[in-house]
Amino acid sequence: MRSFWSIALSTLTKDIRLEWRSKDALNAMLFFSLLVVVIFVFSFDPLAEESRHIVGGLVWVAFLFAAVVALNQTWARELRNQVLDAYRVSPAPANALFLAKAIGNFILVSLLEALMAPLFVIFYNLRVLGPAWQLIPVTLLGTWALVVNGTFFAAMSLRTRSRELMLPLLLFPVSIPAVISMVAATTSILTGDDPAHFYIVLLLTYDVVFTTACLALFETVLQAE
Amino acid sequence: MTNPLTAPRGAPIIAVSNLVKQFGRFTALRGVNAEFDAGKFYVILGDNGAGKTTLLRALAGLTDPTRGEISILGKKPHEASRDLGYMAHPSLLYDEMSGMENLLYFDKLYDIAGNSRCEQAIQAVGLDAELSRPVGKYSQGMRQRMSLARAILHDPKILFLDEPFSNVDLHSAREMVGLLKGMRDAGKTILVVTHQAALLEGTADEFVWMQAGQIVDRTNHLARGHLAPGDAPAGES
Lengths: 225, 237
Prior knowledge:
The complex is a heterodimer. By secondary structure, chain A is mostly helical.
């Protein structure tokens, strides 16, 4: 068990080091999210009241699309020089690799959210009317929902010819329940109209179910030719 | 078969029986049967598409056979992974990290602690462990050596090497052959797929000839007795 976590931690550290050196995924995600913020501000020019109703959807759709960039990058790195084969011939457990990749993507997307959140607040004149602290569990659970499935489906589409196209085709339909929950919870918190508890529980359930499923199936995906 | 875990030099350590591998309609391996003995140096030869790499990948556990069985040290390849070292034509290294950083990551996969083993492996292939340059900026020969260092990092009993000398200059290739000879003499079993078989004449114990997904001959010398005139062995020119 110690070995499992040691391998997961080494893989995570290695991925963060590689991303820090190249900044491929982070730069692309930041640029994409920034574009979404600016384009929608100029398209809608919303009032504060209107913003509270639309920003939930806008924020999460922007992060979902931006996350796809990071998710594709995660495995593309392992394909160069066929490094993934070095992992596959080793006795290291497949799930340690999956968990490290998912946590790495979670950190990356969370960093993006932390950097973009102030811009959304400024550009859309946001003021939270509901319990603002609830945005924390919604963000954490929502982000995990995106990256856990994203990491899994990115690995699944790794050997397909048009993997960058395959990932959104596989990921987006499966993410619909999570995205609806994230958007509804965020809108509820921003407007203060309804309690967001139901959506938070829904997100938690979604995360538990899909994390378990991904962990159970990942070895098959990794060893597939 | 002798108990493979305590197999003396010369006893079968790898057994392949009726191995078939299909990729869609294409059959890469057509019922391969073979045994490879402990502590010997084998060179697998054949034309492109003969099934050499597929056989090596199947032995390393990287490709599942369509039919047939592989036994390595009495276990399936996945179960014997701690005893296997695999080097492919691509480097299997991260270009953005230095050689030492790469090995420090891979040693964790084998639960090896500390830097000393990585330094030993790098020194064994004739490179400098202090080299901080990313692997992507290494010459092809250095990359191949570092790839070999990764394969021997966990001191495996069996080494599978796919085209270890490709794009390597003659001097470096000869040094690598010397290193592999030393490993064989130390008791490791080595299987090399190469098109530069002449480099291994005098070093290898056996040349295994493949054609159209089958082993067609096994010789102790590079020259095959029943070759048709003009049908020169691969790598000889």
